[in-house]
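Researcher: I'm comparing several assemblies side by side, and this is the next one on my list. It has 697 residues spread over two chains. Same procedure as the others: predict the full complex and return the structure.
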Amino acid sequence: MKNPLKDLIKNPIVENPMNEPSEHSRRKFLFKVALLLNGAVGAVLAVPVFGYLFGPFFRKNSSYNNWVSVGNLEQFPPGETRLGKYRNPTGTPADGQTRTLPCWVRHIANNQFQVFAINCAHMDCPVHWFPQSELFMCPCHGGVYYQDGAVAAGPPPRGLFQYKYRIVGNQLLIWAGELPTLSTEASLARPGCSSCQG
Amino acid sequence: MPGLKQKGIALYHWLDRRLGFVKPITEAAEHPIPASSASWWYVFGSAASVILMLQVVTGILLALVYTPTARDAWNSLNFLNHGLTLGWFLRALHGWGSDFMIAIVLIHMTQVFMFGAYKFPRELTWIVGVFLLLLTLGMAFTGQVLRFDQDAYWGLGIGASIMGRVPWIGGWLVHFMLGGPIIGATTFSRFFALHVFIIPGILIVLVGVHVWMVLRLGINEWPMPGRLVRRSTYLKEYEAEIHKDGVPFVPDAAWKDVMFSAVIILAIMACAIFFGPVGPSGPPDPTIIQTAPKPDVAFLWIYAIFALAPPHLETALLLIAPIAVICVMLGLPLYAGEGEKHWSRRPVAVLMVCVIAVSLAILTSLGEHPPWSPVMDAWSADPVQPKYLKDRTPLERRGAVVFQQMQCRNCHSLDGVGGKRGPELNRVATQMTESQLIRQVLQGSGNMPAYGSALSPQETTALVRFLETLNGNQMPARNLARPLAEGTPLAEPRQGSKE
C-alpha cells in the first residue's frame, strides 16, 4: 500500500508546484487577514485588562476617604498629644493587622484638635511623640517636628500631614483612607494654614 | 546483563530520534573556547545561574507552606521557622541565596566590565545583563516585602513616598504601586505576583537569551594589552584564535564552573546553618510604632543616600539619578564597543570601579549603623554616668535630669553612648560660650530643633551649667570680644553670670 508520509519525505514540499510564490498570494492574503483579526481581538481584549490594571489611576482620591472614628473625646485630654487608632474605611478582613492604622491626636484646648498622620513627610516612617520635649521624632532619617506639626529639624520637606476632623457626639472623626505622601496628602491642611484647616 | 544494556540503548535511541536533544546539547557543551578563557575568573556567570536554580527550587518549596495574604503571611513565616521540620533551613537557604545572588551578579558584572567583555560583538549580552541585575534587585525588594513584618510594612511606605515625589502622576503611581489607596491586602498580593510570577518569568527568559548569546558569540578571550577590538576584524581574529588553540568548554573550562558552583552552594548552606533565617521581625501592625525600619543589606546604600543628600536636591536625585545610572549602564557598550579591553590600559574604568565599590561599601556600612537616626530610647536607656554627677551643685545635677528628660540624649552622645545625629557633648563647652549654648538650645539651628517653648529659663540655665561641667580639665570657650570691649585684661576669668 502506498504511504503518503513516505512519499512526502521522498519528495519534499519544495518540488510541490502549489508552493510557487505566485500561487501563494491568496494564502498570504488570508494569513494577513488572520493576523489582522488577531490584532483586533487583542486590542478589544486589552481594554478590560487595561481597565483592571489601571483602574486605580482613574479613581478620584477623595472617593477612598471617609469619616472614621479615632475614639471618644475622653481619650484625648486637653493639652496632650496621644496615639489614636482608626479602621481603614476601605479595608477588608484580608488586610489583617494592616487594617487598623495609627495617628497622633493633639487636643489643643476646648475641642480644638490637630490630627497628624503617623507618617513622616520625608519617607513615611512612623514618627514618635515625646511629651517632655514636645517634639515628634522620626527614627529613619532624623526628621523632627514641633507639637503643631511644623518641621523642627532634619530632611522633611514639609510639616506633618494632617487629617480633617470633626466631632460627632462624643466621637472624634477624621477624614482618612489614603496613605499620605507628598502627592496624596491626608488633607489640604498644612501647619500654619488657618484658612484650610479642617 | 547485556540484554538490559541493549534495551537501555534502544530506549535512548527511541527517545533521541523523537526529541533530538543530544546532538545540539553535545555541540553546545563541547563548543570551542579560547584556551585563555578556561579561567577561574570566568566562573561567576554560571554560579549565578546555579543560585537562580536554588532560588527557584527553595522558593517553590516555601510556597508549599507560605500563606500569601497580608493577614496570614507573618504567622505562616513563624510557622515555617518554628512549627515545621527544617522550615527554618529552607527559609535561610532562600534568604542567603538571595544575598549571594546579588553579590555574585555584581562580581560577574565587574569582571565582565574589567575584561572589556561587553565590547563588540557582545553589546547586547551586556545590555540583557543590566536588565538581569535590575530584575535581581527587584526580586530582592519584593522578597523583602513578602517577609511581611514591620520592616516590610514601613519599607512599602518608603517606596510609596518615593513614588509620591514624582511630579504630576505621583498620586497615581502611589495607588498603582499599592494596588489601592493604602497598604493592605491588595498591596501584598501585588508584590506576591511580582515576586513569584512576573519577575521570575522575565528573569528566566532573559537568562535564556543571555546564555544563548554567550554560546552563539563565544566566550570572551582573555584580554591582552594593545590588542584592540575592531568591528571589521574581531570576528575573524576570534575565529582564528579558537582554531589555533581552542579547547572544548566541557570539560576543559566547565570543571572550574562546576567546582565553583558547588563551593558557592556549600557556602550558602553554611550561612543558612550558622546564621539561620532573617526575621520575620515584629508583626506588620502599623499601630506598633516602636520600630526603626531599615531595608535589607542590598538597599542600605540607598537608605544612606536618602539621609545624606541635601534636602533640596533629594527629589531630583531620587528621580533622575536611577534613570541616569541605568541609561549609562545600557549605553556603555554602544559608546565603547571597540578599542582596548585590557584593564591596564583603561585607567578610567579601573578608577570608576574602585570609586563605585568604595562608595557602596561606605554607604552600606553607614546604613548598617546609621549615625543620622536618633536613638529613640537613649533618653531612658543610657544613663548619665556617676562621674558626671559627683561633686556637682544641685543646679548642675538638675541640668543632668533636664538633659535626659528632654531627649537630648536621643541625638547627642556622652562618652560615645547615645545618638550620633548631633555632636558629642563632652567637649561642647570648649567650643561654645555659655551665651552661645543658651542660644543654640533655645533657638536650635540646622538639624537641631529649638527648645525655647519646651524649656523654662531655670531648666535652660541648669542644662547649660551641666554641659559646662563635662569638659574635664579643658578650659571653657571664652568670648574674647567682651573683655576687650569692657577694657578688662584678657587673663581675667569669664564673668558668665553677668551675661
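Model: For your comparison table: Residues 48 and 141 of chain A are 42 Å apart (CA to CA).
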